[in-house]
Hints:
The structure is a single chain. The protein is of the alpha/beta class. It has a single domain, classed as TIM Barrel, CATH 3.20.20. The longest helix has 16 residues.
Amino acid sequence: MVTLAVIFPPSQPPEQILAVAGAAEAAGLAELWVWEDCFSESGVATATAMLAATSRLTVSIGLLPVPLRNVALTAMEIATMARLFPGRLTAGVGHGVLDWMGQVGALVESPMTLLREYTTALSALLRGETVTARGRYVHLDEVALDWPPAVVPPLLVGGIRPRTVALAGELSDGVIVPSSPSPDEVRAAAGHFYAGRAAGQGDVVVFASAPAAGPASAIAAMVREYAAVGATRVAVKADEEDADLERFAGFLGRDVNPLL
C-alpha cells in the first residue's frame, strides 16, 4: 500500500513549521517531508522541530545537499535526531542545485563521484562503523560516532537520471524522484533503482504537486497512478505558493488518504 505524505517546502516561513506538523499528525498522515534549499531553512533544524512537536509522525528530509555539508557533521546530526526520536526519521541526500553550490564555493567537478563517496561513508558511520576514506572528495581518518543511532534511519538518495537512481539502488534504502515526474518517468526510475539493488525492496518516493483545493478524488487518483508504476511513498506539495499548509495537511489526511 502506498504511503501518502505532505511536503513542507522551504519557500514557507519557519514560523509555520510547528502548526503544519501538528495539523499533519492530527489529520492522521503518517509522514511529513522537508528539504534543504539554499538559502532558506536548514533541513535538520526544521525536521528536529517537527519531530519534537509531534509524537507519532515520521519526518523525512529529502534532501540534504552533499557538497554543502561535511559527511561527519551530517552523520552526527542525523544520529542525534535518530537517538532522540527513534524510528521516526528518514534522511535523504543528493547532488544539490549546482548553481547554488557554485554560489557558496562548493561546486565539485564530479557530483556523481562525491555522491557515491558521501553515501557510502554516511551509511557506514550511521551503522556505527569506524570509517577511513581516501576518496576524491571524502577524506576520513578512523572516524566513528560516539553516539550512533540505536535505530538506524533509512537513508535515501534523490535523483531522476538513470546513473543517480541506479546509485541509489546500489548504496541506499530508497530513491527520491522529485519535481512531479510523469508516471513513465517513475516507472523508469523504479526500474533503474531495482536494477541496482543486490537484494531487498527499498523505497521509491515521488514528490508531486497538487491543487490545495482538491478535488480529493483527483489527488487520490494521481497517487494511485504513481503507486501502479512503482512508487511506495508519494509526498504532495500544494501547488499554490500562498496555500494554507495547515488546511492542506488536514485535507490530505482526512479527505484524500481514505480514498487510497
